[in-house]
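Chain A, query sequence.
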Amino acid sequence: MVLDRRDFFAALLPLLVQVPKNDTNQAPVPPGEGDDAIVSALKSLKQADVPGLTAAIAIPGKPTRTGATGIRKAGSPEGFGSHDLVHLGSCTKAMTATMIATLVEQGKLAWTSTLAEVFPDVTMHADYRPVTLTQLLTHRASLPANAFWAGLGRAKSTTEQRREAMTASLKSAPKVKPGTKMLYSNLGYAIAGLMAETVAKTSWEDLMRECLFAPLGMSSAGFGPPGIKDKVDQPWGHSAMFGRKVPSQIDNPPVLGPAGTVHSTMADWAKFAELHLKGARGEATPILKPETFRILQTPAPGESYAMGWGVTEREWAGGTTLSHSGSNTQWFCTVWLAPKRNTALLSATNEGGNAAAKAADDAVGRLIKLAGL
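Chain A, predicted structure.
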C-alpha cells in the first residue's frame, strides 16, 4: 500500500521542518506486559533499526503469545507495548474479502457478480463489464494499481469517493484482458468494497464492524492511524529520512479502506488469523462455511495469490502457507499461517521501508523457532 504522492508530501512537509533527534538520555517507559521469550527474541534482533517491533504466536484454543520492544515515537520516551495498536496496511485485504464472503453466504452477492450487474448505471469500457467479484479480489481484473486518490472530493463520504474513483477508472480500456493475468490493484479492492456497500446499502466501515470485528471479538479494530491525533497514547508511524526516524500519524486516504486502513492490537489481529487457520483445517468457525474458506484461500490456476492471501509451500510449516504483508509507508506488518501446524505467526513495526520489512521478516524467523516449527 502506497500513499498518494500528493497526500504523502502534504502531510509530511511540516514534519520535515523539525526532524526529532534520538535522545539517548531519555529512558523508554517499559512497554506493556508480554511473553518473555518473544520480548527477548525481538530484543536480540540488534540489526533491526526500527523504532518499535511487536510479534505474536497464535494457536487456536490457546492464549495468544505477544511481545513488543522499542518506542512508540522517535524523540519520545513512551515504550511500545504488546497491547498497543498496529496498522495493518494491505493485510486489510484478507479481512475485506472475508467480510464480503459473509454477504455471499447471505445471497446478497455472488462470486460471479459482475461490475455491470452491480453498477448498471455506470458507463464503463466493454472489457470491464464482465469483470467478476472473484477477479477483483484475486487481482485479475486488469485494473490500475491505484486511482488519483488526491483528486477525489474529500467532502464526500468514502462510499461516494470509491464510486467516483471507479467511474473514472473504468472508462478506458484495460492494458490486458481481464481474467488473464494477476495485476496487484488497491483500486480493485476499493471497488470490491463498493460492491459490498451497494448491495448491503451500508458503508464498508460498518460492514467490517458488523460482519467481522464484532463476531470475532476484535474490539480494538478500527480504521486509520492508531491513537489520538498529536498524542502518544499509541505508536506513531515512521519514515527513515536523512539518517533519522521521522514520526507521523499520516495514512492512506479513507477511500482506500478496503485495500488497507485497518488497525488493531496484535491479539485481535491474531483472532482473524485463527479464523482462517480453522477454516483452512475444515474446523467450525464463528462465521463462514468450510467451502467458503476454500474459495477464499485458493488461487486461480497457475497463480499463487488467493483472496488477500499469498499461497506458498514452506518446509517449516509442513506444507502450504497463507501469508501477506502490509504497509502504508509508515508501518510494516506481516502474517504467516501454517494450517498443518495449526499456528499463526504475526509481526509489525511502526516504520515503513526496507529496514522495516527485514525487521518484520526476521521477527517471524525468531517466532518459527519459538513455536517449535
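The longest strand covers residues 319-326. The chain has two domains: 5-17+27-89+222-370, 93-209.
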